[in-house]
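Students often ask what a holo structure prediction actually looks like on paper. The answer is less mysterious than it sounds. You provide the chain, you provide the ligand, and the output is a string of discrete structure tokens encoding the 3D arrangement of the protein together with 2-acetamido-2-deoxy-beta-D-glucopyranose.
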Amino acid sequence: MLVLGLVVLLAFKTEALNNGLALTPTMGWLHWERFMCNIDCAKDPDNCISEKLFMAMADMMVKDGWKDAGYEFVCIDDCWPSFERDAQGRMQADPVRFPGGIKKLADYVHSKGLKLGIYADVGRKTCGGYPGSLGYYETDAQTFADWEVDLLKFDGCYMDRTLIAEGYVNMSIALNKTGRSIVYSCEWPLYDWKVEMPDYPAIRDTCNHWRNYYDVYDSWQSVKYILDWTADHQDILVPVAGPGGWNDPDMLVIGNYGLSFAQQESQMALWAMMAAPLIMSNDLRDIDPRSKEVLQNKHIIAINQDSLGMQGYRTTQVNFFELWERRLSKNRLAIAILNNYEIGYPREFLISSSPTWKYCTKVCNVTQILPTYQELGIQTPTTNLTVKVKPSGTALLIIAPLNKASWDMDKKTLKKGLFGKWWKKTYAVKNNNSF
Ligand SMILES: *[C@@H]1O[C@H](CO)[C@@H](O)[C@H](O)[C@H]1NC(C)=O
Ligand SMILES: *[C@@H]1O[C@H](CO)[C@@H](O)[C@H](O)[C@H]1NC(C)=O
Ligand SMILES: *[C@@H]1O[C@H](CO)[C@@H](O)[C@H](O)[C@H]1NC(C)=O
Ligand SMILES: *[C@@H]1O[C@H](CO)[C@@H](O)[C@H](O)[C@H]1NC(C)=O
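The corresponding structure tokens follow.
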């Protein structure tokens, strides 16, 4: 038994970064997509990148139920620093826009029971041209720890490609050395993919989540590109995600200008299926109640935060429907049905025609989460249950077994395909090789 365990360990070891963080996908808010590099506080005092903006978002997160829904991190992106380091070589916040400095902002955010994220870059400069951390990893890690920052988004601009891996690893070590718990959000594979296949086991060892693909824009086309790219690479991506380390398809743009309500539901549902960090970029002071409802939907969030921690994947595309499934704890399965026929009216989809339905051998319990929450109850293999899916909208359901006999998902079945790959690489090691 011992020998067998050892073999499994050596053959499939893909440990998550050992900082005990991000055991479920990170949830929070990040300024980039909505507020970008708006530094003109004279012209636009309420929306420029300043301590006022982050304090206002922290206030809203508590006041409007975001914190209660699970959104915890208030994150700063690029364009916060001064162009000059201080006399000791430390980064400093822009003195005009952050007169209290980052430590004071962190104190404010912590006083609300929330956490603060900050942004830096592995190279010579940030993407916006501010000081990069190359040559300063330990100094910057210690500075962020001294400020009591809780998350670092580490970008990859202005970096020699051959040094990228080393840079991300060195910063991970530097963060660890500070002794402070800091979630480490990387963009390492995004820069690798441009040239070669990223070293995902190393990335999982180093980072809590990692961006693979280009920045999200405020459009359905952008969300679709990200989904398609992720599905096209799911054989690589799914096995490396799990508690402590996640693929990051970038921010939720729900509540902005670009997505219809059906599309907002689709982004939320599919980000939950992908076990993605749920990091919104929107204006919490001015958000449509329907967008808020989607973002705070506790049933969708529960799928995203499921303790098994397996990323979902696309199972099939048929008749302009696209099907995703995600295995959940307690032997349950979530399925998402995206209607890619972007014309006309809501189209009917027969739930029992989904590939997942094969597990329902006698009876199973179906709960519909989107388009509306409905407990559809006990169903049989021949059930003719349908769901109507809006153009570019998504239906989301959970299928649960009633007992072992009603459900054909024994260990053998589970170890096949993508699930099996994931199980061996990511799950078995951490969980002593057992369910
Ligand atoms: C640093 O790494 C060690 C060894 O992997 C780990 O036990 C420890 O919890 C880490 N500390 C932090 C603050 O991440
Ligand atoms: C990473 O750290 C190693 C060991 O200290 C050092 O030799 C190397 O130059 C560092 N690389 C970068 C990109 O900072
Ligand atoms: C079916 O699932 C719903 C929740 O999704 C639950 O409330 C209900 O009790 C379940 N029914 C059975 C018979 O297990
Ligand atoms: C479901 O629909 C099919 C085809 O219309 C039919 O043959 C079957 O009897 C129906 N099943 C039930 C349980 O109603």
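The chain has two domains: 27-304, 313-423.
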